[in-house]
Amino acid sequence: MPIAVEVVTQEKLIFSEPEADMVIVPASEGEMGVLPRHAPVLTTLAFGELVVRKGRAEERFAIYGGVVDIRPDKVVVLADLADSSYGIDADAMEAARSRAQRLLAEGLPAEQNREATLALRRAELALRIQRRVQGRGAVMRIIEDADNGETDE
User: Fold this and answer.
1) What is the residue-level pLDDT of the chain in tens, covering all 153 positions?
2) Do the Cβ atoms of 89 and 68 come closer than 8 Å?
3) Cβ of 55: how many Cβ atoms within 10 Å?
4) Is the domain of 76 the same as that of 100?
């Protein structure tokens, strides 16, 4: 029995998979693995990586807060912001990180300091996830085959 997964932001539906095998959620209490027939849970999300697995395929997302509604047959991620790891622009994230670091080093009023700190956290998370995907040899959505050690791209 598979589990349906939806990743939604305020603007749009980011991702939908009707038959996932597993979801790894960055819950505020820690990372949580979700399999089909999981007990119902409603919890908040931390900044972190969401992973959706289906067979050997894998999708990863940078999640920047929100809530998740887990039911036995469906996971609905209502993210404040979310980026697919395959759509992260590393150059833009590097620029955002540099800009936020510069602003924080200059010393800002409390309100602007909070925004710069959040921008820095978002950029660092996105870059970490994007590098993890690239470290696998390219933009790859197939998990390594356990039988022969080769991967399909």
Assistant:
1) 899 999 999 999 999 999 999 999 999 999 999 999 999 999 999 999 999 999 888 889 999 999 999 999 999 999 998 988 777 777 787 788 788 888 778 877 777 777 777 888 888 788 888 777 766 643 334 343 334 444 443
2) no
3) 10
4) no
Q: Do residues 67 and 110 both lie within one domain? A: no
Reduce the DSSP state of residue 79 to 3 states and report it: strand
| Distance separating alpha carbons of residues 35 and 136, to the nearest angstrom | 25
Identify the domain containing residue 18 by its residue range. 3-85
Half-sphere exposure of 31 (CA within 13 A, CB side): 8
Question: For residues 122 and 96, is the Cβ–Cβ distance under 8 A?
Answer: yes
Q: Are residues 56 and 128 in the same domain?
A: no
CA angle 150–32–74, rounded 5-degree value: 85
The number of folded domains in the chain is 2
pTM recorded for the entire structure: 0.73
Which residues are within 8 A (CB) of 125 and not within 5 positions of it... i.e. 6 or more apart? 47, 48, 49, 62, 64
